[in-house]
Design goal:
8 strands; alpha+beta; 182 residues; disordered C terminus
Length: 182
């Protein structure tokens, strides 16, 4: 069954109108692990993890679990966790939103003239350029809608020295990586 599933995914990826439907969060996280492995930086040098979203089951590791029943204080705590991760210089956040993966380029929070609090993240609904400010409430609703929609955190260890980082950058820009995602 696994072989048929993989063949179906390959057909989707190589069709005239390619689809990444066969690629899930698992493949992104496995790719991050393979990058670190192939760059010989060690398993903890570059890591990816599920950061925020709806928990699939009780065993799923997730830093920030979202529920439709979360109250205002819980939502504020979730926003604070997102802001903290975003402000970490060693972390990049990747949002799996509806049929698309995109970086989170910026976040903002402000108070409107009538006293309302607006929390937004800058990302892309299509393509990869930062084009839209999405309300955090909409991002939450998207992630709660389906367990596959998540924000992933990809981090580089702060203990890497400058030479190791340059080697990593060089290898990821070249075609020296063998990322066989099995």
């Amino acid at each position: 069954m696994e072989i048929i599933k993989n063949m179906s995914g390959l057909v989707k990826l190589s069709s005239p109108k390619p689809s990444t439907a066969a690629i899930g969060n698992w493949a992104i996280l496995q790719g991050v692990s393979r990058l670190a492995e192939n760059c010989q930086l060690g398993p903890s040098a570059v890591q990816g993890k599920l950061f925020m979203g709806k928990r699939r089951n009780k065993l799923q590791k997730l830093d920030v679990a979202l529920l439709s029943s979360d109250n205002e204080d819980t939502v504020r705590t979730q926003w604070d966790a997102l802001r903290s991760a975003f402000n970490n210089p060693n972390v990049v956040l990747l949002f799996h939103l509806k049929n698309h993966y995109a970086l989170i380029f910026a976040i903002r929070e402000y108070v409107t003239v009538d006293g309302g609090i607006v929390r937004q993240l800058l990302t892309a609904r299509r393509g990869q350029r930062p084009t839209v400010w999405i309300d955090f409430s909409e991002a939450r609703d998207t992630m709660i809608q389906w367990e596959g929609y998540k924000i992933m955190a990809i981090s580089v260890a702060s203990t890497l020295n400058k030479g190791e980082l340059e080697l990593y950058k060089e290898k990821t820009r070249s075609n020296d990586l063998n990322l066989d995602l099995k």
